[in-house]
Amino acid sequence: MLYNSRPHDTPFEDGTFKLTLEFTEEYPNKPPTVRFVSKMFHPNVYADGSICLDILQNRWSPTYDVSAILTSIQSLLDEPNPNSPANSLAAQLYQENRREYEKRVATIVEQSWLNFNDDEEKEPKKDS
């Protein structure tokens, strides 16, 4: 799944990131496993792309749908929780050196454009 992050006025604005959502037979009683496939630099995203987000853990409700999950991820990109870090360096920079944090995020956003275009070229062309 491709996700265009669009939290306006944030360093992630205009980034296009790949996510996987894996649903088990226990859904909707258990949340899907959600992770970024695209490289990500964020206080609440682990190196493997897993997301530290309460609604994907202990605050899951069967009423949540994919839209609610994506909206929550978008909010998390906009407002990280540095008190529950999955990436301690990102959390530290977010709190102590916002300029450096935003510089690193800008690099990730630029990479998301390049990776998106690379994947578009790998897609097989459909006959018209």
From TrEMBL:
Keywords: ATP-binding, Nucleotide-binding, Transferase, Ubl conjugation pathway. The active site is at C52 (glycyl thioester intermediate). The keyword Repeat does not apply. GO terms for molecular function: ATP binding; transferase activity. InterPro entries: Ub_conjugating_enzyme, UBC, UBQ-conjugating_AS, UBQ-conjugating_enzyme/RWD. Residues 1-114 form the UBC core domain. Belongs to the ubiquitin-conjugating enzyme family. This is Ubiquitin-conjugating enzyme E2 1. It comes from Trichonephila clavipes.
